[in-house]
Design brief:
The complex is a heterodimer of chains A (329) and B (314).
Chain A (H helix, E strand, L loop, with lengths): L3 H19 L1 H16 L11 H35 L1 H6 L5 H33 L2 E5 L2 E5 L2 H25 L3 H19 L20 H23 L4 H16 L1 H4 L8 H8 L9 H5 L6 H28 L4
Antiparallel strand pairs in A: 1-2
Chain B lengths: L4 E11 L5 E13 L4 E5 L6 H8 L7 E6 L13 E4 L11 H11 L4 H14 L15 H12 L6 E5 L7 H16 L3 E6 L2 H7 L2 E6 L2 E7 H5 L14 H15 L12 H12 L23 H10 L1
Parallel strand pairs in B: 3-7, 3-8, 5-6, 6-7
Antiparallel strand pairs in B: 1-2, 1-4, 8-9
Helix pairs in contact in B: 2-3
Classes of the chains: A mainly alpha (329), B alpha/beta (314).
Chain lengths: 329, 314
């Protein structure tokens, strides 16, 4: 039998998820990330035969940067705005503990980040698969892009918007939620459909040409987003969304440079303690492994997931402590 | 009998970011509310009513003093299963529909899906929201949003109902309906604490009131006791013309050697307004809605009393 707490938890997660997706900014960030990833290869000049790598790295960078903006802004808005608008007070006047409330809010934002991750990873797979490749054309060979996949990858999010508009008109569906969920679905369908034609565009027997090694490399970036979203949710207990975004960007910057400023620091020193507290983004950025034809091993992913879980738990513990001490007006 | 709410020396000082005191919102508040009472907290804006309520709900931490709600400290979330709360401003998720809102708050109480649905439908009907149950609250008037707020406060069939300015934003008909609802719920055994600065609202509904000003209780007692003018006596005589009244008045004045006044009693503006609306709509009464939903009857099978008892034993 489902416990009372789980029902409360699920209700807050669901409401947070819908609320975050209702924000026009969330959809804009997703659209920007997906379109930049899909369309950027069009503007790659002097690629020196590395079109695929550029498309891939660009997609992973979009995942991290746009994901940070989405995760921090959504977490900040979900927690701080609820406290400011009074809906948090309304929820906390029910049998809902502050710890459960903040954790459920975080999980709701994590789901948003998850959908975002699926969409941008799918766009990255499409961009890499569509990049210039040496193919046999007739009795010769040439370096060509997969024009059809590239076009479809750009059109898929726009088609998703149109379907979301139709659903809103016909079935009163929430446009923001429908569009946010349909964009990754449309991109995944595009990826699956791309198996029906060759890189040169000839229709033929089904053969998927995707570089699936990208997925285990993209996964740690989701872990990084999870840690940054947790710190954002924790800070939003006290700080407004704009400040949370700034602090989130600072944490990202410090995390990216962590290998530089924390190298060789003893664990008991201040630098060592800070290195333990700050999420080291280098631990989650594995794009170089792909360039050498490798991928992220499963054991590394498990350890990265554990590190992210510990970092998120620490951030949430700090957030719950701050939240318990706070007056909710 | 254990009081439902008891505060002793309750004090709340708000502080700024640097922990410097900014305002003393509530000071030395001693309050006792017995089961089944309808208690009114009156006062002008900024007198500390909402702050008091938020301390009772554990949302604000008191600076000093003690609070006991349903026999436990307000931070104990177990007691919140038995409390219904309507905030001063109807704080609702604007993107949800009334039906979704009631399901959301029902789920926060741990109610299963079926109970949420049954109670939600009963409350939607009670609050006359059935026709707009699937429209987002974003497009609602303040009064309609208030109705949703009142419905959500009752989803758990509470033993203690806390209403912060319940009639704010409602038209006179809806105001009267809310007051009748509060009385009906109190008659069924529910304890109600309500705040208002609309004195007529409180006068008709509350058994006892406390009047706050600048964080301090200035007067407290039963409404009748506070309002009665014990040094003045009024006779009410039906069907007496002015011509017949005047000699009587003169006779009394001469015999008692005191000033004697006669007048015709008036009905309240609210009663007159409701009569006009009823006549205009061709109905016997302008009041049709806000009858308590069946599950709110505490003596009913599966009603609140049974549920509370189950929770207590658990």
């Amino acid at each position: 039998m489902m416990s009372d707490r789980f029902r409360s938890f699920r209700a807050i997660v669901r409401t947070t998820f819908i609320e975050a997706l209702q924000e026009p900014a969330a959809l804009l960030v997703l659209l920007a990330a997906v379109l930049v990833t899909s369309a950027a290869p069009l503007f790659h000049f002097h690629a020196f035969g590395e079109e695929g790598r550029l498309a891939r790295d660009g997609g992973l960078a979009s995942l991290l940067v746009f994901g940070l903006a989405l995760g921090c802004a959504a977490a900040g808005a979900a927690v701080h705005r609820e406290c400011a608008s009074g809906t948090a007070a309304a929820a906390l006047s029910k049998p809902v503990g502050r710890g459960l409330f903040l954790t459920a809010k975080y999980v709701g934002i994590l789901l948003v980040c998850g959908v975002f991750w699926v969409a941008v990873t799918a766009a990255t797979l499409a961009a890499e698969a569509a990049a210039d490749r040496t193919v046999v054309v007739g009795e010769s060979w040439d370096r060509l892009p997969d024009v059809r996949l590239r076009q479809w990858a750009v059109l898929a999010p726009l088609a998703a918007l149109a379907v979301a508009g139709l659903l809103q008109n016909r079935r009163r569906a929430r446009f923001g939620v429908a569009a946010f969920l349909l964009i990754p679905a449309a991109l995944l369908l595009t990826l699956l459909a791309s198996g029906f034609w060759s890189h040169a565009g000839a229709w033929g027997p089904y053969a998927l040409r995707l570089n699936l090694r990208i997925i285990p490399v993209a996964l740690p970036l989701f872990f990084a987003l999870a840690v940054l979203a947790a710190w954002s949710a924790a800070l939003a207990v006290r700080l407004p969304t704009g400040t949370v975004l700034l602090v989130g960007a600072a944490i990202l910057g410090a995390g990216l440079a962590a290998d530089t400023w924390s190298a060789g620091a003893p664990a008991a020193s201040l630098r060592g303690v800070l290195a333990g507290l700050f999420p080291n983004i280098q631990h989650y950025w594995l794009a170089d492994a792909l360039a050498r034809g490798g991928t992220a091993p499963g054991s590394y992913l498990i350890r990265a997931a554990g590190l992210a879980a510990a970092g998120s738990a620490l951030a949430l513990r700090v957030g719950v402590g701050l939240f318990r001490a706070r007056d909710i007006g | 009998m254990t009081p439902v709410i008891e505060t002793t020396g309750l004090r709340k000082i708000f502080r700024d970011f640097w922990r410097r005191p900014t305002v003393c919102a509530v000071d030395s508040l001693n309050l006792t509310i017995q089961p089944g009472e309808v208690f009114g907290l009156l006062g002008p804006n900024g007198s500390g009513k909402s702050t008091t309520i938020k301390m009772l709900l554990g949302l604000l931490h008191p600076t000093a003093g003690t609070v006991s709600v349903l026999g436990r400290p307000p931070a104990d979330i177990v007691i919140k299963h038995r409390i219904g709360y309507l905030p001063e401003n109807t704080h609702l998720h604007r993107f949800l529909t009334p039906r979704e809102t009631l399901h959301y708050y029902g789920a926060l109480f741990g109610l299963d899906r079926r109970t949420c649905r049954e109670r939600g439908e009963a409350l939607l009907e009670m609050a006359d929201l059935t026709e707009v149950a699937d429209r987002p609250i974003d497009g609602f008037s303040k009064g309609m949003a208030r109705r949703v707020g009142i419905a959500q406060a009752l989803i758990n069939a509470p033993d203690l109902l806390i209403l912060d300015e319940p009639t704010s934003g409602l038209d006179p008909v809806a105001c009267r309906e809310v007051k009748d609802l509060v009385r009906a719920l109190a008659n069924d055994g529910m304890t109600v604490l309500m705040t208002s600065h609309l004195l007529a609202d409180v006068e008709h509904v509350c058994d006892r009131v406390a009047i706050m000003h600048r964080g301090l209780v200035q007067a407290e007692g039963a409404v009748d006791d506070l309002l009665v003018r014990a040094d003045t006596t009024r006779f009410l005589i039906a069907n007496l013309s002015d011509a017949e009244a005047e000699p009587l008045r003169a006779e009394l004045a001469a015999r008692l050697n005191r000033v004697v006044a006669t007048d015709h009693p008036t009905v309240s503006l609210e009663t007159y307004f409701l009569d006009v609306v009823a006549r205009a709509s061709g109905k016997a009464s302008a009041l049709t809605h806000f009858r308590p939903a069946p599950f709110l009857h505490k003596t009913g099978i599966g009603g609140a009393a049974t549920e509370s008892a189950k929770r207590e034993s658990a």
